[in-house]
Design brief:
This protein is an alpha/beta fold. It has one domain: Aldolase class I (TIM Barrel, Alpha-Beta Barrel), CATH 3.20.20.70. It contains ten helices and ten strands. The protein has an eight-stranded mixed sheet with strand order 1-4-5-6-7-8-9-10. Helix 4 crosses helix 6 and helix 6 runs parallel beside helix 7.
Length: about 290
């Protein structure tokens, strides 16, 4: 496979075929993220992508899921993306689910009909980074969209028939906006009503603007107990009709997998017990991105 530079994928895609179609992220301005700073955004040539699909056909017959990398494959023009998905469908017939990252810009460039076409061609799961529902935080981290647009684009994915997984970042508001971050994020998640929520805990990355702000005393990072309190407030403010709220990423202090609404109270009690010291937290040395 022709992999270039650092790549990331969601935890749920750990056993998927990883097909790199884009390099980096078309936005690449978020102050907390250093993942793609070494890459200039580009779309790889079809012949390279198709060669990787052929390699997967020969060597990855046990994996029935495929994830399209890098940061926001939805941004690929529809004609090219359809061509790639058709090649996957034709050559990797055993693949049952294609997943990809998408931001609001990429989703907004697709018509409702084009989104449904992607679903028909095998894209079953879209991952969208919300990070926060607090508009002030979204502005400060230069996310490129406000909460209203996040809700609109998230709903469009759901209406297309594709499943939606929304990522949020616990601790992103620092000490100053922790409560607002939790409450507003819960409000936006409730409005979108995604199939999955993935909560990560903020880890400052050297070389990023947010880390520089921390070093200058302009951003105050909350401690593990405050992270748990914020997570509890976020979950209590989130109302999903039938979704899974995951906080089992390597960055999290307390692994959580809760079906909402059924397991909300049980999950809040688990967080309460952890805050009382009755449940052991992951040591700092074991956390990772």
């Amino acid at each position: 496979m022709h992999y270039e530079g650092m790549m990331i994928r969601p935890p749920s895609e750990a056993n998927s075929i990883l097909l790199q179609v884009t390099l980096g992220c078309s936005h690449n301005k978020c102050t907390f993220c250093g993942t793609f700073r070494d890459k200039r955004f580009d779309i790889k040539k079809d012949d390279v992508i198709f060669e990787d699909i052929e390699f997967a056909r020969q060597h990855y017959r046990r994996q029935n899921r495929l994830f399209i990398c890098d940061g926001d494959a939805m941004i690929v023009p529809q004609k090219r993306l359809v061509k790639i998905l058709k090649q996957i469908k034709n050559r990797l017939s055993w693949v049952k689910r294609v997943g990809l990252y998408a931001n609001t810009k990429g989703i907004g460039m697709k018509s409702d009909g084009q989104l449904k076409e992607l679903k028909e061609l095998g894209v079953k799961l879209v991952y969208m980074g919300l990070e926060s529902g607090d508009d002030q935080i979204l502005k400060e981290i230069r996310k490129g969209a406000d909460s209203d647009r996040m809700i609109k684009m998230g709903k469009r994915i759901k209406e297309s028939g594709m499943q939606l997984s929304v990522t949020v970042l616990v601790g992103l508001g620092g000490k100053k906006r922790s409560k607002s971050h939790a409450l507003e994020t819960g409000k936006v998640l409730s409005a979108i009503d995604p199939d999955f929520v993935g909560a990560l805990s903020l880890m400052l990355v050297p070389g990023t603007e947010l880390n520089d702000q921390f070093q200058k005393g302009e951003f105050a990072l909350i401690n593990p107990e405050e992270m748990l309190e914020e997570l509890g407030l976020m979950i209590s403010s989130t109302n999903l009709s039938n979704g899974l709220f995951h906080a089992n990423h390597a960055s999290n202090y307390l692994p959580i997998r809760a079906k909402l609404p059924e397991e909300k109270e049980k999950t809040l009690e688990l967080i309460s017990q952890a805050l009382q010291g009755n449940v052991e937290l992951k040591p700092e040395i074991m956390r990772a991105l």
